[in-house]
């Protein structure tokens, strides 16, 4: 007899593991620097011990190849950055950048971001959460996989300190509209946009090569910044 179980929407994965092929440099970084930068999902998370200091904690979900995260961490040495990414080559690339530039204020989880936030990050301790260019899941039947949904915002509200912020950016207009509606409906968050919709790109978010190319082609990019009430 087959028993069909209803899947909790809160636990539908917002990603598919497409590991790809790591370059020689990424493989070397993964082999040589894993213990220096990567945290175990099974170990306790204590930011002060991990970073060797007390400083505001910024979490980036899905940092891709890590170019933007490395640039932000290098430009803001007074902040602690925690990057979470499921794609192993991207983790290797970020570690390469951290070593090359001697950036010491970044640590990494190679794991599901939702699970890390739920199980490892203490409540009300995060100063900011970044979600830059998440998978928009274009097809309607896949919209349930989009990470910005009410269950995710409930988790954010638990982890963000009062006055902390959530910053999402996308180059997919329909996803921007969907995120804006979902975020605006959350009573615990306040839109930082003076016009009640999107924000200009803040200086701390670097322009990626992909984004620059899209802008030259006339593609739009939408930034949403909401603060914890």
From TrEMBL:
Superkingdom: Bacteria
Positions of substrate binding: 139, 171, 208-211
MF term (GO), any: tRNA (guanine(46)-N7)-methyltransferase activity
EC number, UniProt record: 2.1.1.33
Classification via CDD domains: AdoMet_MTases
Protein name as annotated: tRNA (guanine-N(7)-)-methyltransferase
Family statement drawn from the similarity comment of this UniProt entry: Belongs to the class I-like SAM-binding methyltransferase superfamily. TrmB family.
Swiss-Prot/TrEMBL keywords: Methyltransferase, S-adenosyl-L-methionine, Transferase, tRNA processing
Task of the protein: Catalyzes the formation of N(7)-methylguanine at position 46 (m7G46) in tRNA.
Enzyme's top EC category: transferase
UniProt keyword annotation of tRNA-binding present: no
InterPro entries attached to this UniProt entry: SAM-dependent_MTases_sf (IPR029063), tRNA_(Gua-N-7)_MeTrfase_Trmb (IPR003358), tRNA_methyltr_TrmB_bact (IPR055361)
Catalytic activity: guanosine(46) in tRNA + S-adenosyl-L-methionine = N(7)-methylguanosine(46) in tRNA + S-adenosyl-L-homocysteine
Binding site for S-adenosyl-L-methionine: 60, 85, 112, 135
Pfam families on file: Methyltransf_4
GO cellular component, one term: tRNA methyltransferase complex
Residue ranges of the TM segments: none
HAMAP family: tRNA_methyltr_TrmB
Pathway(s): tRNA modification; N(7)-methylguanine-tRNA biosynthesis
